[in-house]
# Entry
Amino acid sequence: MKNKKGNMFIYAGLVMIAAAGIFAGYNFYESSKAAKSAADVSQQLHIPETVVEDVPLYVSYPEMEMPTETVDGHRYIGRLEIPVLNLELPVMEEWSYDNFKIAPCRYSGTAYLNNFILAAHNYRYHFGTLNNLSEGDKMSFTDMDGNVFEYEVILKEVLEPDAIEDLLAGQWDLTLFTCVGNGSHRMVVRCKVL
Amino acid sequence: MKKFKLLTVFLVLLMVISLPSAVSAVGEIDIHKKTSIEILAAADDAALNGAEFEIYLVASIGADGTKTAAHGFEYYEYYVENNNMADIQKMAGTIESHAVQNGVEPFDKGKTDSNGLLTFPVNALEMLPGLYLVTNNNHIQGDYIYSAEPFVVIVPGMDDDGQWNYDVVSYPKFSKTPADGLYVDVSVIKIWKDTNHEKHRPAEVTVNLYKDKNIYDTVKLDASNSWRYTWKHLDKKADWSVAEEFSDGYTATVEKDGTQYVITNTYKKDTPPDEPEIPKTGQTWWPVPVLFACGLLFVVIGLYRRKTGEYEE
# Structure
């Protein structure tokens, strides 16, 4: 009898370990899928190399909507590049939990009004490595008209889950955020435009 | 002493009685008096000969200066009643757009003479005090095409002496482009001013392109075309204008910058702002170490029990 019970424990234990493995495996799979989908989209975005007009539209009309291109049924507003983290990512116009699985998304604001907030999952190849950024690191965002906006990291902070006001507090030109740990707190990177 | 007091009271009373009529002698407008608007059309010191202008009655003026929107411009009733001339001037482009969109008939039209002068009324029998919108058509002279932005004029105007002037003179400001080349591009971009109310935005808006005030084309602006459009290869010599169809919940203003039209929609209802929702952007990892640790524990327990079980046997 005791043998059987012992075996049951062992089996149960092995099942749990296997479950842990499957869970971890799924997370890794989701992460690499996200990396791939972002890279795929990035390839398909047609961002002009040079800007056509003498005076870009956004300079005359900073309240305009950011122009978009539609790829696979989703609208993208441009490309974010962070050389220090080796990241080049397309950015979706609107956020949703489904959208986060494909690419980083705009949470609110625009590059033209210097109130730009971008968010992404903490996948390794989305915003998972934001913590490795330091003050002074540079990044750039290119919109679908080819206008380039350069930024510099000013500070990093970790915010409580309910700190909505702090997250949205308006004086930062560019904000990036993602979740740390198990999704409760947020890593927030604040940048100023150059 | 008593007489002195009495005299003072009498004088004060006299002043009080005469004061309002002194004000009203300047303040009241004679709403039956005929008015005129003279336009001097010139650019670079050259008089524009044969430039066409149209004039619309936007609002009539009461004796005390209150404005009442005229037929065809009832949409702007509230705006016109409650804003000063400087602010109404900013709306001239929008009001013109509304007139074109709704086929409002002009009050009068005319052409300048060889001195660049045109005095309204031309065909109308008489012109009375009111708020008028003055628009013009492209005018080709020499090597250039001249056009002036629409503007509003109020008659009577107040002159430097504080008197009402029932004959007003206007000097519209002209811009010019070279008349060579056959084609021009006309662009429209839509701007939304509705922070925290974006959910109320319509999925698309309809914009009409007018050639010489007749509808020429219709396009739909939406997020997929970035709320902007350019008509290419249009006849440079024609008069092009753009107007948007009504969007519920928003007021639209139209501004023109050369051939770039900017239509700004501002959210006007008094609804509470949308609640911001902050996404959770983390993968769920906590079950992994928990399951692993439990699993390991169970395996250990199991092994132990097997071992002790054997010994007991």
Notes: The first strand of chain A starts at residue 69 and ends at 71. Chain A has a mean pLDDT of 90.
